Amino acid sequence: MSATVVEGRRASVDLSVPIFLILGLLLSVLVILPLFWIIWYSFTSDGGGGFTLANFAALVTDPTLVRAYAIAIGMAFAVGVLSCLVATPMAWLVARTDLPGRRFFRMLITASFVTPPFLGAIAYEILAAPNSGIVNVAFRSLFGLDSSTVLVNIYTFTGLVFAIACFTFPYVFTLVANALDKVPSDLEDASAILGGGAMTTLRKVTFPLVLPAMLAGTLIAILQSLTMFGSPAIIALPAGFHVITTKIWSLFQFPPRLGLAAAAAIPLLVITVMLLRAQKAILGRKGYTVLGGKSGTPRINTLGNWKWAAMAFVLTVLSLTIFLPYGAILKTAFTNTAGDPITWETLTLRHWRFVLFEFSATQLALRNTFLLGILTATIVTAIALVTAYLVTRRSIAGAGYLGVLATAPVAIPGIVLGVGLFLSYANPTFQLYGTLWILLIAFMTIELPAGYQQMSSSFAGVHPELEEAGRIMGASRLRTLWDITAPLLRTSVVAAWCFVFVGTIRELSATILLTTANTKLVSVIIYDLNESGDLGAICVLGILLLVASFAVVYIANRVPVLGGSQMNARG
Amino acid sequence: MSFLELAGLVKSYGAVTVVKGVDLSVEKGQLVCLLGPSGCGKTTTLRLIAGFVAASGGEIRVGGQVVSSAAGTVPPEGRNMSMIFQSYALWPHMTVFQNVAYGLKLRKMSSEQINKRVREILTVTQLLPLEGRYPGELSGGQQQRVSLARALVVKPEILLLDEPLSNLDANLREEMRFEIRRLHDEFRYTTVYVTHDQSEAMTTADVIVVMNDGRIEQAGSPEDIYARPESEFVARFIGGTNILSGKRISDDTVHCDGDFILNCGSGTLAPSGRAIVSVRHHDIEISENRRWETNTVSGRVVRQIYLGSHRDYLVSIPGGETVRALSPVDVRLPVGSEAWLHFPPNDCRALAR
């Protein structure tokens, strides 16, 4: 029998191999290069440049470093515990009781993800600084006390923990509330039918089922606060102590001690990796968190007379985390000084005039911020899209490696990446320091995991048979991607883009090490203005950032061409 | 020369070989069922035919031309086949009409022609009133029919079905079996159908190909497969059976473990090793006393169930075997009593493996 290949067989050019190689190279450079230079510099003497172990020795012997680490770890755990203690009852009340307005509360907390933590810290500076803080001023005038009386002082360790926890508790809240949504009611009914009362069922069935989500959320809160730069810099520095991120930053001040900074960054990297592994281990226990969602709607508990106590609790938390800070920011943006009472005389637009027209740095910073936000969001979404396609469809051997690379930066804290990128690109070879490029690289690296995770989960949601159906009906691979995959992914792509954009325009931890006078961003300007005490201008900039974030999310959700999907909470 | 031919087809993933040399010829217009337990390689074989996976060895030929071999694979879009997927794979962003029209659009037909062809097939599948709906607004059975319409409208050379009925509930499944057979009789496409459900295969197929562990166990008409199984696997998998074994005496005679002789009316025993015989449940006769001279043995009733149309007996015989037999309802033997079983020689099938 003559066996010949069918005529007209398409010798299509397979682009997947070159794309795979280019992506692999790009991701390797993005991820591996900064880590390599951190390790290299950590063994390099700051004095002569030779090999040394002195930097690592200093980690143990230098009391300022040891203290900074101790305080940072203590702070992070305190934040984690506080977030969990506040968020878990909130999540239960909102997800599983008949609390009035629970949908609105939930939406509000989800929306509060958009608040940059450093802005929250500044809001609390306005509210609770020992002398000028609104709360203290109001307290003194209410009871006619003199200016030495201080009710609350944010410039303390406790104040720092409180201010950070206000903005990390949504992480725990969202995870726990989602987990509570997924606990099928028949599991609880099974307990009830066997004689378990409401409290017993809650304690023995519901609680253990959401425990992994609680732990995972708490670990995220710990991780967030440990690697955070903005809030500690705003609150801890005036209070006279360092956490590790601010300590690393201070090592970059003149005279720079890059080797020591690199060595100091390594334990932070290790702790982050360990925390993430712990989180993965907790969430990865099969059959424990993979909660079937088919068993009907979750059971809603009736609060009865407890309703008012619950309401008071929820409103107190929301006041502290949302209403008061936002109120303070708004008030400061429109009055002369933060402590003024609100009357027609004190209302002013002078901060807006100053920020928008008089202060020379603003326009450049706004332009830089939005340019970088748009560029980063577009590039990251594109890379994430192609990577997720190659990984989930396994169309090429070794594609899984790309997924690992794209996820890896999640374990690199912003400040560590800042150190690594500074060491990699601020040298005579690249000379990228002082350009927007180095910031673009930083943002791409930081945002890649979030973008990739979004895209890969949405690819996983598109059944491969949908694409295969296109192929067997006669469409080429590209045509199938265009006709079938792309329309199905459109809303996820838009969501991922927004996600990255919002994340980028609020970034400070890596930016603070990489920015110069020519490449200022809004977040950096806010930080600079804080040093000079110009709170009114800060609040105006903060409002601009928030408005931009909400506008982007809103547009993405409303414009039909873009798909109109729900924006996921930032995780 | 057959229209679709698989010759020595092999597929390996690393060290694991899932299709281990499959040879199969399908005539034009035939409906062939690949039947087997999960993991037997039937779905992989189908995906090899579709071109979704590349062959590690052997060839697939369509109309005498190689479409898959270790040297290369014609991509699925170049094969003029169509397929019905287990998940139906209806595109959720397209209406019923758009789903069905997609394949015709790719074939660059004029919109009048497309309209005409789509309407025709929607009429045949009774979907015309639903043409403007999205898949999410259809019931399971309707989705299944859209999937059928979409596959048939392009007039494929070969139609592939991958467990098409496994997501339907029992009633609908039965109905769709006949529907698929009806549409096949109407259009006579060469069809390869993968299923693990033997009654589905019996109702729809011209040829049943029983697969096991990456190989073809037996291929033949539904009657061949049921009445003349060649291996213990096929006999057990199709229809359920009793397997009796013992020492081989001649080509068709076995000295069974319970110390009785079985004469087989058909089949051939393996030339050496243990001899095995298959007797279907409903072919066995059962009585309280000995009424037969040969092919008979006595045992004890272990279980008896009244099922309206017949009685279902479980009888343990010497040698440790338990035999299941179906009898008319008027044969009443209480549990624990002695029972004589008769294996009519014509219903004893000697198996070679």
From TrEMBL, chain A:
Name the SUPFAM superfamilies on file. Answer: MetI-like
What Gene3D superfamilies is this protein classified in? MetI-like (1.10.3720.10)
Record's keyword terms, sorted: Cell inner membrane, Cell membrane, Membrane, Transmembrane, Transmembrane helix, Transport
Query: Which membrane topology describes this protein?
Result: Multi-pass membrane protein
Name where it's found: Cell inner membrane; Cell membrane
Membrane-crossing ranges are 19-43, 69-95, 107-130, 150-173, 209-237, 257-276, 308-329, 370-392, 399-424, 430-450, 535-556
The lineage's top-level taxon is: Bacteria
The protein's matches in InterPro entries, at most eight in alphabetical order, are given as: MetI-like, MetI-like_sf
For whether the record's keyword set contains Transmembrane, the answer is yes
The ABC transmembrane type-1 domain, residue ranges = 69-279, 366-556
Q: Which family is this sequence assigned to? A: Belongs to the binding-protein-dependent transport system permease family.
Q: What is this protein called?
A: ABC transporter permease
What organism does the UniProt record list as the source?
Answer: Shinella pollutisoli
Instruction: Read off the lineage from the record.
Output: Bacteria, Pseudomonadati, Pseudomonadota, Alphaproteobacteria, Hyphomicrobiales
